[in-house]
Specification:
Umud Fragment, subunit A, 7-stranded antiparallel beta sheet, 1 helix, 9 strands, Putative peptidase
């Protein structure tokens, strides 16, 4: 009687395990745990697919005037980009189409080029004012930037190694 009870229990457990296996097999595999992240601002798309051609050994992005540079090691954009990564920005675009989340390069009175993310857009009688912040900075930049100080909008990031 004891063996019969154990056998019935083992059969029941096998059925439970087979059901779990079937459930797991039905799911799409992912290396990430089943959790949701918090929605964060992200850059919008700037490059139409018809401007991109993928060739055997290269990717070509056609644009009016593209600007590129190697990042300085300021740590302000850590988590997204860092030195010596290479950024490519588009310089000919409608600055009034910039959105919160876009990453831009801009100039100030004291710097020729800074790359930060737009976190707020306001408008006054002279036009748009952008509040920017490095993704690794705990507070926004202490100044606002106008359209004429925006040099480019980031369209490509290459995670390059040291030379």
């Amino acid at each position: 009687m004891c063996i019969t009870s154990e056998l019935a229990h083992a059969k029941k457990r096998i059925i439970e395990l087979e059901a779990q296996v079937a459930t797991l097999e039905a799911r799409e595999w992912t290396p990430y745990p089943p959790v949701s992240g918090v929605e964060r601002i992200s850059p919008q798309g700037w490059v139409d697919f018809n401007r991109i051609s993928m060739q055997q050994n290269k990717v070509v992005v056609n644009g009016d005037i593209l600007r590129y540079g190697i990042l300085a090691d300021t740590n302000s954009m850590d988590g997204v980009m860092d030195a010596p990564h290479i950024v490519v920005g588009e310089t000919v675009f409608d600055r009034n189409q910039l959105h919160v989340g876009d990453i831009v390069s801009y100039r100030t009175e004291t710097s020729d080029s800074i790359i930060h993310q737009i976190i707020k857009i306001e408008t006054d009688s002279e036009g748009r004012l952008y509040t920017l912040q490095g993704t690794n900075n705990d507070r926004p930049d202490t100044y606002q930037v106008r359209n004429e100080n925006i040099l480019s909008v980031l369209i490509c990031l290459i995670y390059a190694r040291e030379r």
